[in-house]
């Protein structure tokens, strides 16, 4: 467009008087407004010759965007009404009363501007038609055209965009980089918007320099990276976070994931103190099914914890999704073990004994699921460095977990027995995923039906909810369940990118939240349980 159109964008707060144009208020405000963007007219450039009148007689002008909404069209009610005094008449006659509207949610300064095409003859961004009723993200230096790709009217400058977000061009062309969602041992997670669909995603950024320590690993092997990318993007299960795409650069690996809106399991537990046993059963069944699917695809997670279990919605009964699987393939085994074992609250004994060597099997995920089950049911950690009798490492290696009778007294015997079978030190005696699903505690018909409802995505009304207090007879309940299963068989959810989550900041449950544990607890060992 030319440097003359954008030369003063840095001085946005001191030059607002220059932006008072045809539609502006006549009185100059006494305060300095918060300007979030600018629309530079194309009057002084060749591209403006199809649109503006008297090109040579006009100096450079820009229009400050202050309000959360800006509209353009023939209607006088628009923020910028198209008039014959400034726009060529052959252009105006093809412009709709409302040509397009630009909106920005100013509650979060890093939310992008969204442009929506309201016209019949078309609004174009960088020469590409948006389409009536469609929206797209408006990014810095985007050119807006009306009625035809050649009729360029504005150049958009995003004054709130974070200049520190430097990503490869192939990513910035497709995604708008927004705020940081969280940061973990394996990288930083950012909120990103697909520019074309306006859909939100989470993008994990794994810096190579920080993890390789100058040594060659999978991150520097393009063939192995592509192999892992193909595996991750091919995974399709309702309880597994969908990997949209992966970008590899010299400095980092960028993994674009679906975004979950319900937060993480850790926060749900922290908010409630602990989960009701029936709700735990519903969520836990989904976790087991997800891990079982990963194992069937030859993937061992190895870093299962409540921070890596995400929830689709804020509803009590919600779909669960597992994330951060297969990261070791990108960061390298040594680096992965060093970062993962910083606080090994959920790691199996054989992982600690391996000392960074991959000499253990998928059974490690069963142990981690057992710790998660423990935390869901009673709200505190079975192993912690806060327990002074043994070191954290020795607690795990010996399978001696903290058992508080006051916390466990309301939990069913079947749940306790399942937990013990999962937290068994000897791998050959540890329960398997298949056995977990067939365990007495998991054989709850009501929970099985509810789980299948969530997996299928079939919306069912309250009349289908089967609870312990239901007055229906057993025969009526069974008939209802059969009807539900038949309905779900005909309406399976398409496992596409329609799911939406939030990538979490790793935290740990603190024993201080349960001050009475030490007074009423005894130490039990799972190592002797089959």
TrEMBL record:
Region (Disordered): 1-24, 510-530
One Pfam family it belongs to: FHA
Domain Protein kinase, first and last residues per copy: 175-442
GO terms assigned for molecular function: ATP binding; protein kinase activity
Domain FHA residue range list: 70-130
Gene3D superfamilies xrefs: 2.60.200.20, Phosphorylase Kinase, domain 1 (3.30.200.20), Transferase(Phosphotransferase) domain 1 (1.10.510.10)
Polar residues: compositionally biased ranges: 518-530
Biased composition (Low complexity): 8-20
InterPro entries named in the record: FHA_dom, Kinase-like_dom_sf, Prot_kinase_dom, Ser/Thr_kinase_AS, SMAD_FHA_dom_sf
Keywords: ATP-binding, Nucleotide-binding
Superkingdom of source: Eukaryota
PANTHER family documented for this protein: SERINE/THREONINE-PROTEIN KINASE
Protein name, per record: Ovarian-specific serine/threonine-protein kinase Lok
């Amino acid at each position: 467009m030319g440097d003359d159109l954008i030369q003063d964008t840095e001085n946005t707060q001191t030059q607002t008087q220059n932006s008072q144009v045809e539609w502006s208020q006549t009185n100059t405000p006494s305060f300095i407004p918060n300007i979030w963007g600018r629309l530079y007219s194309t009057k002084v450039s060749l591209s403006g010759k199809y649109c503006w009148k008297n090109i040579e007689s006009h100096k450079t002008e820009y229009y400050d965007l202050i309000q959360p909404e800006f509209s353009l069209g023939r209607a006088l009610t628009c923020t910028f009404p198209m008039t014959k005094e400034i726009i060529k008449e052959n252009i105006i006659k093809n412009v709709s009363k409302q040509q397009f509207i630009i909106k920005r949610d100013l509650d979060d300064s890093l939310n992008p501007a969204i442009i929506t095409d309201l016209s019949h003859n078309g609004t174009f961004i960088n020469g590409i038609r948006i389409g009536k009723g469609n929206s797209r993200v408006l990014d810095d230096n985007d050119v807006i055209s009306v009625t035809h790709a050649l009729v360029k009217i504005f150049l958009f400058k995003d004054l709130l965009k974070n200049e520190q977000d430097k990503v490869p061009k192939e990513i910035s062309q497709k995604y708008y980089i927004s705020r940081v969602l969280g940061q973990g041992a394996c990288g930083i997670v950012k909120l990103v918007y697909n520019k074309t669909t306006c859909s939100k995603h989470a993008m994990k950024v794994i810096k190579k320099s920080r993890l390789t320590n100058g040594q060659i690993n999978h991150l520097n092997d393009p063939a192995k990276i592509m192999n892992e990318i193909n595996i991750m993007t091919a995974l399709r299960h309702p309880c597994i976070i969908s990997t949209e795409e992966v970008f590899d650069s010299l400095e980092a690996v960028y993994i674009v994931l679906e975004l979950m809106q319900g937060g993480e399991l850790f926060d749900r537990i922290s908010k409630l103190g602990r989960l009701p046993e029936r709700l735990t059963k519903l969520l836990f069944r989904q976790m087991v099914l997800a891990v079982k699917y990963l194992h069937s695809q030859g993937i061992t997670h190895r870093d299962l914890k409540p921070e890596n279990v995400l929830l689709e919605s804020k509803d009590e009964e919600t779909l669960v999704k597992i994330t951060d699987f297969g990261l070791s393939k990108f960061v390298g085994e040594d680096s992965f073990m060093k970062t993962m074992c910083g606080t090994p609250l959920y790691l199996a004994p054989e992982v600690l004994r391996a000392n960074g060597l991959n000499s253990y099997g998928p059974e490690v995920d069963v142990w981690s699921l057992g710790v998660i089950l423990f935390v869901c049911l009673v709200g505190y950690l079975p192993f912690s460095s806060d327990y002074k009798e043994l070191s954290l490492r020795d607690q795990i290696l010996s399978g001696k977990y903290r058992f508080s009778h006051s916390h466990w007294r309301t939990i069913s015997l079947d749940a306790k027995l399942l937990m013990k079978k999962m937290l068994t030190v000897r791998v050959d005696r540890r329960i398997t995923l298949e056995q977990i699903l067939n365990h007495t505690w998991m054989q709850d018909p009501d929970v099985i039906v509810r789980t299948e409802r969530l997996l299928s995505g079939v919306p069912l009304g309250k009349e289908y909810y089967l609870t312990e207090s239901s007055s229906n007879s057993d025969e009526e309940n069974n008939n209802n369940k059969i009807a539900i299963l038949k309905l779900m068989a005909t309406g399976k959810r398409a496992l596409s990118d329609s799911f939406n989550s939030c990538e979490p900041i790793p935290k740990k449950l603190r024993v201080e939240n349960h001050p009475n544990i030490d007074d009423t607890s005894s130490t039990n060992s799972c190592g002797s349980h089959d």
